[in-house]
Amino acid sequence: MSATSTTANFRSTRAEQAGIVLLYGIFGLLLFGPLAFGAVEPWSIFLMEAGSAALFLVWVGKQILEGQIKVVWNPLFLPMGVFGLLIISQLVFRITAYSHDTMSLTLLYFCYALLCFLAAQTLLRGSQTRTLAFIFCLYGGALAAFALIQGLSSNGKLYWLRQPRMGGWIYGPYVNHNHYAGLIEMLVPIPLVLALSRLASSRTRTAAAAIAAVMVGTIFLSGSRGGMLAIVAELVILAVVSVKQKRGLRTAIGIGVFLTIVVALLIWIGGGELSRRISTVGMSHSEISADVRFNINRDGLRMFLKKPVLGWGMGAFPVVYPQFRTFYTNFFINEAHNDYLQLLVEMGLLGFGTMLWFLLTLYYRALKKIRNWTSEMSGATTLACLLGLSGILVHSALDFNLQIPANAALFYVLCTIAAAEPFAQPARKRRVARSAPPEVLASPEALHQPATNF
Distance between alpha carbon 302 and the CA centroid of its chain, in Å? Predict the structure, then answer.
């Protein structure tokens, strides 16, 4: 073997290893964030930012080893880039009311952008997604089991060890139960869609359905009303998609059995407490009341009207809000408790319009890929992402999940995956498709054949 051939093999092996590091590094960071209390503390934020930067250097090294720079484009990159320019303009032209917080959030959004970019460059095959789906199912099931155990034996401390400095309503690894619900809303469609598809064995689908049921159960048991509304919205969207695509009795029965398991679990573990929570609309634990939320929304609109074009500056809401507060409270209002309103206040109409552009592009791209979600990995993955994103977007009207770094990072990466091109098919499947006669390819049996190659 020549020296040139040996060197080429060495570089190819190292590039392949770098690709593996990238794939599991990206999603490892996403799994790390929730366990670190949602990555809201300086040390965990630093680890996410440093980790994303290190992974980008790995990607650069991979390009050098391969001898070429190959960038996979995603249509969401354009609105993301425009949004980044708007934030930078707030700093450059001193529009922001508090440049320190705007700069800190600029770094955090750059971290999100790196993770999205790297996910788009790395997650290209259905086989990769299949592996990640199993990992996320196990992760979500383990997190839900931990939350259940903690809820039954809570001592008011995170992991039974750490006392929150400013109080809270602890559920799972989060100080705020609403943010736990926000995370699970994005994760639960993964096992749910897997259970209703034809992409796994019957035993695997049954296990996935059980995991999804436990995860949904913990959303209700967490007491998050926004989470309950979000998961109902996800199930309604799934039902509508199934009816429109005429998926038949099998999918309807699957959803019915799933809901039966969820209801049984809720009645068994916490029916009485759940009923009291749903009927309560006032203040409980350390959660703000509906009246306070209404007042914050009203004051926030007044803030927006003062600076409607480019807002007060990313991250400046808690600094500016006391000037506009019209009521007395013992709470420190650090967020608007409405992600849409907070974006409008901090980024103005230009930022809000960019967000609408981002979401319209996302749904336009994603809805075209879910046609054969029961038998194609691209469709199933896109539908799972779309359901989770729809749930968190509903919840965002009532809370501030997208101000929590762990939840925001997962949200943006799921958006990138949903809007990406369909996954590359295995070579064997492409050869079979090319060699099949046209009349076979056009037959109903061929169109609905399960994709067993993944």
Answer: 31
